[in-house]
């Protein structure tokens, strides 16, 4: 039985010339580079962002240079397959490791009871193995991997499609139309490929309902789903605004501690991102009020039930700022940069401050206004070596270079 299942999961064992008709993601080249080091490679990200597709693309790359039988893919959503992972010895006996390197792909690794300890015990044997894993919930993976893989793991966050990828996917569609599509329906791969607007909405609803069931109810064990859902709606209505946790708690009639725990879950499952005000004093920075941005604007608009075109919307500017943040964040492959906003006591503001090593960059996002913000001059008085940049709907393409 297990052999039959694995042959279906690994069709290249019998057909080395197999080609996957999958969209080539920009991050693929960086993943390929990481095939040649001794670390466990982990792909994390929201559901439906294409992690499994990327695993297949890596397999397609490997088929050009290694024996097809040295590439093994295990989807742990299958209960029978999980039986092979009952212990490290059971798994290694199945692999029958010899002199050549075997490439082991483990999809949905969080299905294991203790994936961190399991992977550590195999990695530390220094066998001819390269292990690549994927997981849908960063929160769940962190809880299960814990300290076991410190120094052994290279983790890459897989995003929804970027603007560059959306342009590649639809080369004949004007950039302005693609920008509007991203601001209205987001950029999940399956939704980006869909031309029917009603179907886009239905697919977004499917993703959201699956998220509520599997990540929120099943793993996070949140019992008050109603309050969690209402919190999401309130957050969706205030993207790019200061986050008043006490006001949210009062509105929802739950504790501030519960609100903070919900925010942690939302961020850990790639739904939102909090950014904090910029201070040179880090302790002061994290004690201040953050702003939140959604990592997919389609989900955000679904929560509000607002599908009006951009020219009819009062939140056009907020949507564009959010999109710019998503693009900036997704360009940072290893997530080594720090993202902030800047706000003075007299309420002079800059949308985004990015710390990249010793480089400081101040960015304003304006959908249609191309006038250089006065706030740049004020910021440069404090930080004269900073770089400033105004991003509009006309110049957002500059982020692609």
Description:
The chain is 42% helix and 16% strand. It folds into two domains: 2-157, Rossmann fold; 163-400, Orthogonal Bundle (Arc Repressor Mutant, subunit A), CATH 1.10.10.10. The model has no long low-confidence stretch (mean pLDDT 92). α9 crosses α16 (297-304) and α13 packs across α14 (256-268). The protein starts with a helix and ends in a 10-residue tail after the last strand. A hairpin with a 5-residue loop joins β8 (338-343) and β9 (349-356). The chain has helices spanning 2-9, 28-33, 51-62, 79-82, 88-95, 115-123, 138-145, 163-169, 175-185, 189-192, 197-219, 225-236, 245-252, 256-268, 282-286, 297-304, 316-331, 375-382, and strands spanning 40-44, 71-75, 102-107, 129-135, 153-157, 272-277, 291-294, 338-343, 349-356, 359-365, 387-391. With 401 residues, the protein is of the alpha/beta class.
Shape: globular
Major sheet: order of its strands? 7-6-8-9-10-11
**Average pLDDT level:** 92
Along the chain, the helix and strand elements come as HHEHEHHEHEHEHHHHHHHEHEHHEEEHE
Largest sheet: 6 strands, mixed
Distance between the termini: 50 Å
According to CATH, what is the class of the largest domain?
Mainly Alpha
State the total count of DSSP E strands.
11
Q: How much is the radius of gyration in Å?
A: 23 Å
* Number of structural domains: 2
The CATH homologous superfamily of the largest domain corresponds to Winged helix-like DNA-binding domain superfamily/Winged helix DNA-binding domain
The CATH topology annotation of the largest domain reads as Arc Repressor Mutant, subunit A
Briefly note the structural class of the backbone.
alpha/beta
Strand content: 15-25%
Outline the low-pLDDT stretches: none
């Amino acid at each position: 039985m297990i052999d039959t299942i694995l042959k279906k999961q690994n069709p290249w064992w019998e057909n080395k010339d197999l080609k996957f008709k999958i969209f080539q993601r920009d991050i693929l080249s960086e993943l390929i580079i990481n095939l040649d080091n001794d670390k466990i490679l982990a792909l994390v990200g929201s559901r439906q962002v294409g992690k499994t597709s990327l695993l297949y693309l890596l397999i397609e790359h490997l088929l050009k240079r290694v024996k097809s039988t040295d590439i093994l893919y295990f989807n742990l959503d299958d209960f029978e397959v999980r039986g092979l992972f009952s212990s490290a010895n059971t798994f290694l006996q199945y692999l029958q490791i010899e002199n050549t390197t075997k490439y082991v792909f483990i999809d949905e690794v969080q299905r294991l009871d203790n994936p961190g300890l399991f992977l550590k015990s195999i990695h530390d044997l220094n066998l001819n193995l390269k292990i690549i894993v994927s997981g849908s919930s960063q929160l769940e993976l962190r809880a299960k991997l814990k300290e076991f893989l410190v120094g052994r793991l290279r983790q890459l966050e897989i995003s929804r499609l970027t603007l560059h990828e959306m342009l590649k996917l639809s080369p004949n569609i004007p950039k302005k139309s693609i920008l509007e599509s991203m601001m209205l329906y987001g950029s999940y791969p399956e939704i980006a490929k869909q031309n029917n607007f009603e179907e886009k909405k239905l697919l977004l609803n499917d993703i959201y309902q699956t998220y509520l069931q599997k990540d929120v109810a099943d793993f996070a064990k949140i019992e008050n789903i109603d309050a969690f859902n209402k919190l999401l709606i309130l957050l969706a209505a205030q993207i790019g605004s200061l986050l008043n946790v006490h006001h949210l708690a009062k509105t929802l009639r739950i504790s501030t501690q519960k609100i903070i725990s919900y925010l942690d879950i939302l961020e850990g499952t790639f739904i939102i991102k909090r950014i904090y005000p910029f201070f040179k004093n880090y302790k002061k920075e994290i004690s201040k009020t953050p702003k939140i941005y959604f990592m997919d604007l389609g989900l955000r608009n679904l929560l509000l039930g607002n599908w009006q075109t951009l020219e009819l919307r009062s939140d056009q500017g907020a949507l564009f700022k959010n999109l710019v943040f998503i693009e900036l964040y997704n360009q940072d492959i290893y997530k080594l940069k720090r993202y902030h906003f800047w706000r003075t006591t007299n309420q002079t503001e800059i949308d985004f401050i990015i710390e990249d090593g010793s480089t400081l960059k101040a960015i304003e996002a304006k959908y249609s206004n191309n006038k250089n913000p006065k706030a740049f001059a004020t910021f440069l008085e404090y930080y004269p070596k900073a770089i400033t940049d105004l991003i509009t709907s006309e110049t957002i393409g500059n982020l692609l270079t």
